[in-house]
Design a protein that fits this description.
With 106 residues, this protein is mainly alpha-helical. 52% of the residues lie in helices and 0% in strands. The chain is built from 6 helices and no strands. It has helices at 2-15, 29-34, 55-62, 65-68, 72-86, 97-104.
Length: 106
């Protein structure tokens, strides 16, 4: 019963002109001041196209004949230089991938 009375009282008070709050005009400074601040814009990285080298190009770099005869450190430097020519940073990996493949049973 209290809800019905309070809703009825709120409806009657809403009809009285001196109880209404004036709304600012849409192009007024008060309207723009009342708008909430926009939050930071987050960009989904999956929406941007891939800008790195393709899988075929990377495969060609890692399977190049001239790099196969080099030692492990020289091969890493050769790979880094090949990626540098493409404009991609190649940081030296810290694990020996070839050893990990052999351990799996390849």
């Amino acid at each position: 019963m209290r809800d019905a009375i309070s809703r009825g009282l709120a409806w009657v008070l809403a009809l009285l002109p001196w109880t209404r709050q004036p709304k600012p005009g849409r192009h007024s400074a008060a309207y723009f001041a009342a708008l909430p601040e926009p939050g930071p814009v987050t960009v989904d990285p999956w929406l941007k196209p891939w800008r790195g080298p393709s899988a075929a190009v990377v495969r060609d770099i890692f399977h190049a004949k001239e790099a196969q005869s080099l030692g492990p450190e020289q091969r890493e430097r050769w790979w880094a230089a090949a990626f540098c020519e493409l404009g991609v940073d190649y940081d030296f990996p810290t694990i020996n991938i070839t050893g990990a493949r052999r351990a799996v049973g390849r």
